[in-house]
Structures are given as structure tokens and as C-alpha cells.
Write a structure and sequence with these properties.
It is a single chain. With about 375 residues, the protein is an alpha+beta fold. The protein has a domain at about 225-355: MucB/RseB, C-terminal domain (Phosphorylase Kinase, domain 1, 2-Layer Sandwich). Helix content is about 15%, strand content about 35%. It is built from six helices and 18 strands. The strands form three sheets. Strands 5-6-7-8-4-3-2-11-12-13-17-16-15-14 form a 14-stranded antiparallel sheet, sandwiched between helices. The chain has a two-stranded antiparallel ribbon with strand order 1-9. Strands 10-18 form a two-stranded antiparallel ribbon. Helix 1 packs across helix 2 (about 25-40). The protein is elongated, with a radius of gyration of 19 Å. The termini are far apart.
Amino acid sequence: MTDEITDLKRRLARIADTPRQRPQIAIPPLAARGRRKLRARRACAVAGSAVAVGLVVTLAATGLPRIGARSGRPASPPSRPATGTYPNPLVRRAIFGWLPKGYVTATVMEDHQNGQHTFEAMAGLDGGRGGIIDLTDFGAGPEPILGHLSGGRPARPLPATPVNGRPAHWIAQPGDKDGGRLRWQYGPHRWAEISVLGSADDTGTIHRIAKSIMFGAAQPVAFPFRIRGLPDGLTIYRSTAGPGLGRGTGESAGVSFGAGAYSPNNGLEISVNPAGLMKRQLATDPGRRITVGGHRAVDRRTTSGGVARHTLIVLDVNGFDVTVQASGRTLQRLQTTGGVTGLYQRITVLGTAPSRWTTTPFA
């Protein structure tokens, strides 16, 4: 597992050329999950199901490290209920106040798994090839475990200058082969961390970024779709938005739900990616070629280990490729409202102009 960290570092450098065979839940998770792996096995694998076939510069929710998870077990539901009413799934609660020249915030993610509520924002230089800055706000609670660095090295706190007068320590000092990692306590029982690769990986720059971060923001993120008629009783587990660190200029967005505990065999994933991004990957997809609402689509239905999964990928819908996948108990719950196909028919894609997007995608 630790060998993957070194491999990931290379893949992030050429992220736009990296295909994956299984999943797709939008470009942003590749960035976010990639950096989670660089944080070096802070916890064991959990996360969700693959949303579709492989997609250039995409990584889905299958079998990657999530904070506080135990290997082989599904994520525990968050304490926040979402029965019948679904709020905005992604609220920006930490903002970079300063970034080195050329760096742009590429993706944001909110995660409600294993009793934790984390927010993550990633910035990149030259599509991530020149450098990556990853901010994680762990939310309220004790400091997360440090885990391991590449090569199986146990991470240990190293002395660091306080950040805005508050305790801080290095998990990996600048110049480490995995990049610098600075963690600090920005408030009572609240911890944050910055991980840096590339041109910004030096002590002064990392501290300047950390000091500039504004916590406590509550900016709802706009989504390029609206969905009607989600069945009652689902829980939002993860949401992502942004163009990611690939070469594409278009935005992507995705939301994951679960009926009960979200796991690779029980979940609902809805994602949109720039139109055309999936065309090459779908050329070899084993699903049936169909037409849905006048759009070319791939419909794939499988059963493995007694778990049913239905994936529908619809191409070029108002500027986006749309994927809906459901599995396990969540798929059963969805059947009461028309299944995966019925849910897709209740999705309105709002186009590529951000001015038309909505901060209430499930209203």
C-alpha cells in the first residue's frame, strides 16, 4: 500500500494522462483522493462504489483511504439526518486567503463518513504539474492520527512555528519526498492540515498559506444540475465540485448518498463531467448502447456477490456527460421511484454557464 504513495506522486504530475479502469465520480475526487493517499494511510480503506468505467483524470469512491475508517467495513452514517430533506451538499467552510503566484483553487470536497465531517480544498499550478497545495479542515473533534509516510515510515510530530499563535507541528518537513505536511490547531478541538508538493514546498511559503486561511466561512457551492424526487431516507456522504487538476477546462460535480451505511456495495452516486470526457473510455464499456431522451447512453446492470448494481451514463446533456449509479440497498430504495433510469429523467442539467447553476440542487 505504501508503494502506491510514491506511484501516486508520479501520477499527479501527469494526471491528465492517467486512465483508470473502474470508476468515475467526477474529476474533483481524483485530486482530493490523490492527496489523501499522499497523507499516507491515515486510515484504512472504505469509501464508495465505482460509478462507471474508467475515465481520464477521474477516481471514484472505491477502496481508497478515508479518515477514521476500518478496512473491510462500511462507513458509519454521520450523525446528521437527511430523511426526506436534502440540504446543499457542499458548503465551503475554509478559504485560502493567499496562494503563491499562478496557483488556482481547483476542487473542493465535503465528506461525512465515519463520524467525521471534513472539508478539503485543493489548489494547483499548471494543472497540478507545477505543484499541488491541499488543505483539509478536519472539523470538530480530537486530532486525527498521523498514520504513515511512504515506505511505511511512521509519521511523528516534528516541531514547527505556531500558526497565528496556535500549536502546530510538521508531519513531514518541506523537502520530504512526499512533500511538506503542516498540521495546526486553529481553534478549540479543531485541526487543519496543509500538504504541499512542488514549487511551494518550502517552510516560509507553507506557513504563509496556513496563516492566510479563513476558517468559519459558510459559502454554499453552486451545482450545474437540479434533481427532483430523490427517495426519502438517504444520507449524503460525500460531495465534490470543481475542474480538478486535469487539462480540461470544464467543471465537474458529484454527490454520493447511501441508504444506511455507505460502502462499495451500497450507495448512489450522481456525477456530471464535461461532455466528451468519457467518450474514449466508453468505447470498450460492456454495457448496452441505448438512447435516453435523444442522447446516446450506456446502460450497465450487473450482479456480483449477491449485490446488484445499475449504472447509466448519458452523453452530451447540455454540455455534460451524466452518470447515475446505484447498488445494494440503496438501489432497492431507488426502485420505488423508477430506479436509476427514473432518477436520471428527473435530473435537469443547467448548462455550462455558472450563472445558471443552483445552490439548492435537491430543492
